[in-house]
Design a protein that fits this description.
This protein has 224 residues and is mainly alpha-helical. The protein is built from 10 helices and no strands. The protein folds into 2 domains: 37 residues; 166 residues, no CATH class. α4 crosses α5 and α8 packs parallel to α10.
Length: 224
């Protein structure tokens, strides 16, 4: 082998080692970084959603804030719903969620059936994602037919927010469903209805919790 070829191979091998070392150094620096980038700001409308949930389920704000420090806001909306339905202390449900339990498991632990997450929908309407499965469950439930109901956490969050928007702003469930079918996320849905009622100078038409579909009687702990 010629001397020039040997020298060329040595140079290429050395360059490869340097590049690998630099890559490893970058990875280590990122892993050991004591000042990570801050999380992205919440989507516009997220605070509106959280405020609406607290008012709709009638929980004392100070008590909610005290228990909400370890969980995201959309988790707290579901836990407030479950606490009201089962008449259980909110902090107990927060502990269960913080331990990693899915929402359907938490509901089962406190004696609530999967049907608790169903929201009344027009039976004859054509409903697509993200509510197509829930609509099918509702039709079976409405007609008294037995069906095994299985929801993911994401589906539960969607259904609880559907319930809140419809009840808090006094709008038909199907209108909210159509917005979600068009790809509008719930923070945007809250912003839409909040702005709409604000422009019209109308206060939201909050329904009394006792009259809202579900098992709960509105006598859970943490009321104002």
């Amino acid at each position: 082998m010629k001397r020039a070829q040997v020298f060329r191979r040595i140079v290429l091998a050395t360059a490869a080692v340097i590049l690998l070392g630099a890559g490893a150094g970058i990875g280590a620096a990122s892993a050991d970084d004591k000042f990570p980038l801050p999380p992205p700001p919440p989507l516009p409308g997220s605070d509106l959603a959280y405020k609406a949930a607290k008012e709709f389920f009638r929980f004392n704000e100070k008590m909610v804030e005290k228990t909400a420090r370890v969980l995201p806001q959309h988790d707290m909306s579901v836990l407030m719903f479950l606490a009201r339905e089962a008449n259980r202390p909110l902090d107990h449900l927060v502990d269960l969620r913080h331990k990693g339990l899915p929402f359907p498991d938490i509901a089962a632990r406190i004696g609530l059936p999967p049907t608790v997450f169903l929201v009344p929908m027009p039976v004859d309407a054509r409903v697509g994602p993200p509510y197509g499965k829930a609509h099918g469950y509702w039709k079976h439930h409405k007609h008294g037919r037995s069906v095994k109901i299985v929801f993911t956490d994401a589906e539960v969050i969607d259904l609880v927010n559907l319930r809140i928007v419809s009840g808090f702003y006094g709008v038909p469930v199907i209108d909210v469903i159509r917005m979600r079918e068009r790809g509008t996320f719930f923070p945007g849905v809250y912003e839409h209805y909040h702005g709409k009622h604000k422009m019209k100078g109308k206060k939201h038409k909050e329904k009394h919790w006792d009259d809202h579909p579900g098992k709960g009687k509105g006598k859970g702990r943490g009321r104002d």
